[in-house]
């Protein structure tokens, strides 16, 4: 993994570096599996080897014509400064790890002793949705801000229209065949990953990534089109996850002991409701991030 990481940095071609980054993300996911952190491995595979890789491949394809000019513009001084900053960052991180006390301070005992309050058997979901619920909610807000940033790149003439180009594929080709075969299976798997996240590895993000992949497969095969960004239904889906999260949080502040505090009797139903709303938001956001900015007017 270290060798692949170094190769990804020093290789000159953007496309080769992107391929190395995708492979690096998949290796990291395998390492998380080896450490019995299945939830983290699923997320790393979806982001490092999936979404991030596809976004970088698209960027590399668009920068292919201008790559020689960019490479020539980076002189020796720039490369030396970048290498020094990278080395200093690595040394700082290593030093921070080495000065940690042994054993390191942890909140795990406190989290385990209060796990009964949510009735969730999966400790990762328990922590994400209860003990650090604020962070989890803000992560979904970041996704919403990201899609707004992508949409802001649209020209005025295409604003409110469909993101990305309209894809066409051979109706008798392999892509269309897979786009008809896999989505029903993928949707079931995505819903299962969401539902099992309460007691086993899984959750809304992993399930949403699977649903987004099935949606994008249908779009690339020409069986579906991206919805216009002016669609009210689409915008409701995009704000459903963070919106419901915020409503539950305010309810806890008004009727409970603190912001995002769950009554023990209703904790699990409330968390599952938030997860259902979030999987819709995550699937739509990830799919639209890959589709890009609006390029076509409504009806085109």
Structural summary, described in words:
The chain has 300 residues and is mostly helical. 69% of the residues lie in helices and 2% in strands. The protein contains twelve helices and two strands, in the order H-H-H-H-H-H-H-H-E-H-H-H-H-E. A two-stranded antiparallel sheet has the order 1-2. Helix 9 runs antiparallel to helix 10 (204-220), helix 10 (204-220) runs parallel beside helix 12 (267-291) and helix 11 (232-255) runs antiparallel to helix 12 (267-291). The longest helix is centred in the N-terminal third of the chain and has 25 residues, at 38-62. The chain starts with a helix and ends with a strand.
Search tags:
300 residues; mainly alpha; 12 helices; 2 strands; globular
Amino-to-carboxy terminus distance: 45 Å
Count of β-strands: 2
Estimate the mean pLDDT confidence: 87
Task: Give the helix level as a range of percent.
Answer: 55-70%
The largest sheet, given as strand count, sense and whether it forms a barrel, is: 2 strands, antiparallel
Radius of gyration: 22 Å
The total count of helices amounts to 12
Sheet with most strands: strand arrangement: 1-2
Instruction: Choose one word for the global shape.
Output: globular
| Low-pLDDT runs | none
């Amino acid at each position: 993994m270290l060798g692949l990481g170094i190769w990804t940095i020093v290789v000159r071609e953007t496309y080769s570096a992107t391929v190395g980054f995708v492979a690096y993300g998949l290796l990291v996911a395998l390492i998380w599996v080896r450490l019995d952190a299945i939830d983290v491995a699923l997320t790393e595979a979806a982001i490092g080897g999936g979404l991030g890789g596809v976004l970088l491949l698209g960027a590399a394809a668009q920068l292919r014509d201008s790559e020689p000019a960019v490479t020539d513009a980076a002189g020796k001084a720039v490369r030396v400064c970048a290498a020094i900053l990278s080395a200093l960052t690595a040394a700082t991180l290593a030093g921070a790890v080495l000065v940690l006390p042994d054993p390191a301070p942890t909140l795990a005992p406190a989290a385990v002793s209060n796990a009964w309050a949510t009735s969730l058997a999966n400790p990762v979901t328990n922590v994400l949705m209860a003990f650090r619920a604020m962070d989890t909610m803000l992560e979904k807000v970041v996704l919403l801000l990201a899609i707004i940033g992508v949409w802001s790149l649209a020209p005025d003439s295409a604003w409110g229209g469909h993101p990305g180009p309209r894809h066409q594929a051979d109706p008798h080709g392999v892509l269309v065949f897979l786009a008809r075969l896999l989505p029903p299976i993928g949707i079931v798997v995505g819903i299962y990953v969401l539902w099992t996240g309460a007691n086993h590895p899984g959750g809304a993000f992993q399930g949403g990534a699977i649903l987004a992949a099935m949606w994008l497969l249908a779009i690339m095969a020409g069986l579906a089109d991206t919805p216009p960004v002016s669609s009210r239904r689409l915008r409701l889906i995009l704000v459903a996850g963070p919106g419901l999260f915020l409503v539950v949080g305010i309810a806890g502040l008004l009727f409970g002991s603190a912001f995002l505090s769950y009554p023990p009797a209703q904790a699990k139903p409330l968390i599952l409701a938030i997860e259902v709303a979030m999987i819709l938001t995550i699937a739509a956001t990830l799919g639209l991030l890959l589709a890009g900015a609006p390029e076509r007017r409504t009806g085109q």
